[in-house]
Write a structure and sequence with these properties.
The complex is a heterodimer of chains A (about 375) and B (about 70).
Chain A: H1 3-9, H2 26-38, H3 42-50, H4 58-91, E1 96-99, H5 100-107, E2 120-124, H6 129-138, E3 142-143, H7 152-156, E4 159-163, E5 169-173, H8 179-183, H9 187-192, E6 194-199, E7 202-207, H10 209-221, H11 229-239, H12 245-254, H13 258-272, H14 280-285, H15 292-299, H16 306-313, H17 321-332, H18 336-341, H19 349-362
Parallel strand pairs in A: 2-5
Antiparallel strand pairs in A: 1-2, 3-4, 4-5, 6-7
Chain B: H1 3-8, E1 14-18, E2 21-25, E3 33-36, H2 39-44, H3 51-54, H4 58-63, E4 70-72
Antiparallel strand pairs in B: 1-2, 2-3, 3-4
Classes of the chains: A alpha+beta (about 375), B alpha+beta (about 70).
Chain lengths: ~375, ~70
């Protein structure tokens, strides 16, 4: 990623700012386009060009037009999937919340075209979990991987990905993130704050601004490593908006995620080259102190094995010895159907994952199979 | 009014404005199309929801010099 890409990711946060007064040479332009796709900021590129913050040649303008039309097309197909699922859930009485890109593009950004997305993310309550999965299957979707073990989803699980027959993905969430930070969020307080999202002329339920902001922070700190620029932009976009810092602080304290929020703000500032310290939210979280335990927990969410290490660390958030034993047993000995779906042998994926993480840190890794954490 | 009725009343296309185009995924259509010319033109056409609506009446299309301005989005 170049400094130019970072400036593009920060476009529009602090009024009009020039990114480049001269069109880029071909090589730099091609590199920028690759970065823009990877960081999912095609919409910001189009907006910057439209606002004349980035000068382009006629050929570059055509390339952006093609790119941004494609991006918009994907987002619209995902919105259509969202409307179909929302219709089905509503008529069957399943309460849900729209999460992440599809929600934030409409509720947080000046224009929905600024924020692309890759799938449909929905949250449902634990009591509705299996019913929601069945309703999605009624619509012709198929679960990408089976449950880790019978009952795991509703006790400890984070989400399930379902593939649609049209080639898109619906990510059904029970909690917001893998590992301890996901399990520390109590469901009643998560579902309590509702905001309304308007898509295709209809109102859909989403998380309210404080919950959305903390979710954006989880997405920027506890998901991809390194995070996509659009994830850091989400944090910055909400921080300069109308989010109530006192409400965020109160929820973050309850969910034990004050340090995650503080890290998200600092990382957004550092990578995007902006200052959020004068915003109410930046001021509120500017003096958060870090303990050794926080640093250790956050480290579990970094590196290629973070999918395993963060889940293993989740045991500290499981209440009760019996439940902890059940959690570790499930991670250590998943069902064969689950193992087969992931292409693994019938030995403990937890042990394999931790072993790979250990060898990687010691520089003695032999397998080198990256695992992408999903949130 | 129950949930199903509320949803059945939906009568709108999904759309984005990008640069000076309107990109539309219309109800009942399998493909996305882009209307070169932008938001203002689209509003004057009363937000067409399908390609058929957009392409008729021909007099309107002609008067707005829209022929050839509807493009599929790959």
């Amino acid at each position: 990623m170049t400094a130019l890409t970072a400036k593009l990711a920060a476009f529009g946060l602090h009024g009009h700012q020039s990114i480049s007064a001269e069109p880029l040479p071909d090589e730099a332009w091609e590199r920028l386009l690759i970065d823009v796709r990877r960081e999912r900021i095609e919409g910001l590129l189009a907006a910057a060009v439209h606002d004349r913050a980035l000068a382009v040649t006629p050929a570059q303008q055509d390339a952006i037009r093609k790119e941004s039309r494609s991006r918009a097309g994907v987002d619209l197909f995902l919105e259509r999937e969202l409307l179909g699922v929302g219709d089905h859930f509503t008529s069957e009485g399943v309460a849900f919340r729209v999460l992440k890109g599809l929600a934030w593009s409409h509720t947080t950004y000046p224009d929905p075209s600024w924020r692309g997305t890759g799938d449909v993310d929905l949250l449902v309550a634990t009591k509705d979990w299996y019913r929601a999965v069945r309703l999605l299957e009624d619509l012709g979707m198929r679960r990408a991987t089976p449950e880790l073990r019978p009952g795991f989803d509703v006790r400890f699980g984070k989400d399930a990905t379902l593939d649609t027959h049209t080639g898109w993905e619906v990510d059904l969430h029970r909690v917001l993130v893998l590992g301890p930070y996901g399990l520390w969020v109590d469901e009643p307080s998560l579902m309590a704050g509702i905001a309304v999202l308007r898509v295709g002329g209809l109102d859909l339920p989403s998380l309210d601004p404080p919950r959305s902001f903390i979710h954006a922070c989880y997405n920027a700190v506890l998901a991809d490593d390194p995070p996509r620029l659009i994830a850091l932009r989400d944090v910055a976009q909400m921080a300069v908006g109308q989010v109530d810092p006192v409400a965020v602080r109160s929820l973050a304290r309850r969910w034990r995620s004050e340090r995650v929020v503080a890290v998200a703000i600092r990382r957004s500032e550092a990578v995007l080259g902006i200052s959020l310290s004068s915003t109410p939210i930046g001021t509120e979280f500017g003096a958060v102190r870090f303990r050794v335990r926080d640093r250790a927990l956050l480290a579990c969410y970094r590196g290629p094995e973070r999918g395993f290490t963060s889940q293993a660390a989740g045991v500290i958030a499981v209440p009760g010895l019996r439940a902890r034993a059940a959690y570790l047993a499930a991670l250590g000995r998943p069902d064969n159907a689950y193992l087969r779906s992931r292409g693994w042998r019938s030995s403990s994926p937890l042990r394999q994952g931790l072993s790979r993480a250990w060898h990687r840190r010691r520089g003695t890794d032999r397998t080198s199979r990256p695992e992408r954490a999903r949130t | 009014m129950d949930g199903a009725e509320r949803w059945q009343r939906r009568e709108t296309a999904l759309w984005r404005i990008v640069l000076d185009d309107v990109v539309v995924l219309a109800e009942g259509e399998r493909d996305v199309f882009a209307l070169a010319g932008g938001a203002e033109l689209w509003r004057r056409l009363e937000r067409p929801r399908t390609l058929q609506e957009l392409q008729a009446p021909p007099e309107l299309m002609e008067s707005l010099a829209l022929r050839g301005a509807v493009e599929p989005v790959p």
